[in-house]
Backbone:
């Protein structure tokens, strides 16, 4: 199904280099993640591939089709680095997801600040990945909700990230997002991810020419990007791989990217 092209200003489509998991890798990929890097150590092989990345401002995507959406929202949070204001940011993210999806309940269970700086605890992640798998998403629901989890998992459940720039527009190292409809299940490779305090599973992605890629140039402080990382409903976008990339259109004097992503679970009746 072709995307709908809108009458908008000239496209800022680019060609960029993205890091994909090599499909010739024989073992099970493992990423050991330390909180001083956005990359982590891995036993797998990732290789850069040049891909065309379209300007998503020229289309009208949706969470259930392409797997992502952009909304206008001006936050009331004055300083995202102040943990005392974290509850306000969480509440805003939950409302954004509920308003867009119509979910009966939205749980915000984590948020991550990223800053492209040598002294940053979390850097932008530059390997193509999807945050959850068909196994790890239900497992996360069980971890968070305990005895109530099976009730919620018997209904529709979707993991949706809310990503937004902070302090300044995101011209530096924006996110490239795959059109979920162009990614086949066999392109997604289960990958163990090991944190200092827990283990998880994500999907890596092998490169295929049929993948379609999009990004939002110069995301503003009053914009929030929604990315669907899991959905247990069939027939809609279920996994949406994404990664940061170096845009050739980034001005030389652009400030390093600073962003926050809220991880949410949308529960439906």
Residues:
């Amino acid at each position: 199904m072709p995307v709908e092209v809108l009458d908008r200003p000239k496209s800022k489509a680019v060609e960029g280099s993205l890091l994909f998991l090599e499909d010739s890798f024989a073992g099970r990929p493992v990423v050991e993640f330390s909180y001083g890097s956005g990359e982590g150590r891995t036993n797998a092989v990732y290789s850069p591939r040049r891909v065309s990345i379209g300007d998503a401002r020229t289309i009208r995507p949706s969470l259930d089709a392409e797997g992502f959406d952009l909304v206008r929202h001006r936050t009331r949070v004055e300083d995202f680095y102040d943990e005392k204001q974290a509850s306000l940011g969480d509440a805003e993210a939950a409302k954004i997801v509920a308003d867009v999806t119509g979910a009966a309940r939205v749980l915000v269970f984590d948020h991550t600040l990223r800053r492209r700086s040598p002294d940053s605890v979390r850097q932008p992640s530059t390997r193509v990945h999807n945050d959850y798998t068909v196994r790890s998403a239900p497992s996360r629901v069980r971890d968070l909700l305990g005895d109530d989890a099976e009730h919620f998992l018997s209904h529709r459940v979707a993991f949706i990230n809310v990503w937004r720039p902070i302090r300044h527009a995101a011209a530096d190292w924006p996110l490239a997002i795959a059109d979920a409809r162009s990614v086949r299940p066999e392109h997604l490779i289960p990958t163990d991810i090991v944190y200092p305090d827990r283990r998880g599973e994500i999907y890596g992605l092998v490169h295929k020419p049929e993948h379609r890629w999009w990004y939002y140039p110069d995301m503003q402080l009053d914009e929030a990007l929604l990315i669907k990382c899991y959905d247990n409903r069939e027939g809609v976008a279920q996994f949406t791989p994404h990664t940061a990339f170096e845009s050739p259109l980034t001005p030389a004097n652009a400030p390093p990217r600073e962003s926050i992503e809220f991880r949410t679970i949308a529960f439906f009746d």
The first strand starts at residue 14 and ends at 21.
